[in-house]
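Reopening this ticket.

The earlier resolution said the output was attached, but the attachment link was broken on my side. Pasting everything inline this time so it's all in one place.
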Amino acid sequence: MKKRICLFFMAMMVVLAMLCACGNKSENKKTDDEEESSTTHEGSYTDDELVMMAERYFYLANPDFDPDVELIFEINSRSEEDNTVTIHIYELSDGTLATYDWYTVNIYTGKGETFLGYEIDITVTEIGTETEE
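Inline output:
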């Protein structure tokens, strides 16, 4: 009986430690995201706007994509030389990362290219059209 109680408490401690570690990572991630979102240039799209437009564009360009797959869209890198950001589109499932695409787009125009070099404009609201500015 004492052995079961001891094992139970040890398991609870492990679970609590894992929960605390996960909480700290997400809090740090949020701080990093907040810092990235504040990195804007006058007249450019914000990081949040670019990510939202990339997500909308991805689903417009891939209408048959399974809606049950939870994709993550995040800015992975930034180039101050040519005013671009690279947005990573991926799924994280059971510890496995599956990349669907990379969009490298200009922070002022929203135009750029996919990983395979196809030209894109993430500001469009329908495929085959451009937004009016």
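Reporter confirms the inline version is readable. Residues 1-38 form one domain. The chain has two domains: 1-38, 43-133.
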